[in-house]
Design goal:
eight-stranded parallel β-sheet; globular; two-stranded antiparallel ribbon; alpha/beta; single chain; TIM Barrel; 2 domains
Amino acid sequence: MRYQLLGRSGLRVSELCLGTMTFGTDWGWGADKHESFKIFDTYGDAGGNFIDTANRYTEGSSEKFVGEFIEADRDHWVLSTKFTLKDRNDDLNFAGNHRKNMMRSVLSSLKRLNTEYIDLLWVHMWDNTTPVEEVMRGLDDLVTRGLVHYVGISDTPAWVVSQANTIADFRGWNAFAAIQFEYSLLQRTPERDLIPMAKALDLAVTPWGAIGGGALTGKYLREEAGRVPKDSIRRNKHSSKIAQTVVDIAEQIGATPAQVAINWARQRQQVMIPIIGASKASQLEDSLGCLSFEIPAEQMARLNEVSKIELGFPHEFLKSDGVKEEAFGGMYEKLYNHRNID
């Protein structure tokens, strides 16, 4: 295991993050406490120090398990959790990004985690109702009080994140150091705005869903039953073609499909720390095998080609030869742009 700086911060985190949404069986699936600890122990033995949970995961069981597992060496672990999602039905103020829920949710998480501080607090998703200034000032207050060390944001439009960090920077508040969103060979739409924004603002990316909910392991090619509908992004003709390519390349280079899928996400030209989860320790061991190799350039090119997407307007427009001709006086190819984020 190697380590990376968490975006614009000085925090040192392992190159893979352990996702713990599977810790607890409250939702009718996942790992019991014994198996959860085996997963945690496997990750720690591999050198991992970065754990991701949330107030909502398995009705709070995930936070309780994680808190117990890290208690013996709390300061070693980089503990991240989230707020935004509901802790109670039929009560609007028990969910959302607003200050009232933020403070309540964080205090509740601290109790479940049995800790005095959270290393990284994520805004779980944008609620489209709370003003950006309210969110950023509330997060800054939590950092000032020592309850939180760093802040990140998940599942939010790029323009909101850019606005939030700009406001925070100008007002001297703590800004987001990292961003989290779904990203995989099956879901490359973040390449339109989220990923270029993250690189430009020096935000670490901790993508979830790197193996496409299991689709990139090839399990749906084998017609294994699953909860995912056949017409979803993970089970259609295009996704099957991508998954088959992953399976073929894995066989060719002597890896497993899951390892290939994770490494495709890792091998971006920016800070990319995939979140890996498991319901069995053996599954995590397989995922951790991605650390022992890199996908060769030829195979990366095949994966990029089979999964490519249209970036759409204005990206395709601005990259067109005609526009470059007009914007650079016919000399685009002679200009070295050190700020190029492609």
